[in-house]
Write a structure and sequence with these properties.
This protein is mainly alpha-helical. It contains 4 helices and no strands. The radius of gyration is 12 Å and the shape is globular. Pfam families: QSregVF_b (PF12843).
Amino acid sequence: MNPEILIDLVTKTMPFGKYKGKLLCDIPEHYLVWLHGKGFPEGKLGMWLSTLYEIRLNGLEDILRELKTRYTAKKG
């Protein structure tokens, strides 16, 4: 997996819908499950969301927490 994808998950925001403006990594799991059933959008956003779904499904959220801390500190 490209590490840039993980960085994108902690730095990019949701562009539409109920969670517009939230960091992708902060989108609730139930919404990702719903999107998985409905079908992820095309393009980079869909790839990011499906990757996030797989991370959550496999219990790997700690990776994102560490990256979020690191990249949020750099930003501020």
